[in-house]
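Consider this:
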Amino acid sequence: MAEQDRAWETGCHLAALALLIKIPVANVFGPLIVWLIRKNTSASTDQHGRAVLNFQLAMTLYFVVLFLLGKVDALAVPVGLLLRVWAYLNIFFILRGAYESAQGKLYAYPLSIRFLPQQKGSQ
């Protein structure tokens, strides 16, 4: 069962790559679907799902703020560059989280906001 859980955990991290299909908030809906399917079946998948969702919700919030700042003419170019960096960092952290989960570890995403708290008695 642990190998199956690890596959779901890794898949939950990788589901955030749905952002590459350029559908708004697909980076949240991908992991959300995996998490909703497995959260009551596996405590470890529940924890990974919460970590991924917290990070992707935070990254979406940061994107919205940067996008709105980019509407200011004087900030358009620097914010455009920041948005590109944001996108590459998001992909890097998604891949890093997937790698760590494949190794059996819960990745602590940087820049994450705890929208969904971790369950008591867990990591």
